[in-house]
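Re: weekly structure request thread

Next one in the queue (69 aa):
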Amino acid sequence: MIDPELRKAEDAGWHELHALVDALPPEAVERPGYFEEGWSTKDLVAHIGAWLAQAGVALEQIGSGTYRP
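Done, posted below.
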């Protein structure tokens, strides 16, 4: 069972991220400079999405017993 406090903290973090991104003007979302490497906010959100996709694959493999580190 998932700890309700952990779930609550995760939800709060996602809500905060969404609020921060939603508060940006549209032109700022694509403007490079979020990181020194030149990432935009759009790049950051895409990168988080890629991490989540990889985590989903790993969790499916763990659940089915096929995960290999």
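DSSP finds three helices and no strands in the chain. The CA atoms of residues 5 and 63 lie 23 Å apart.
Next request, please.
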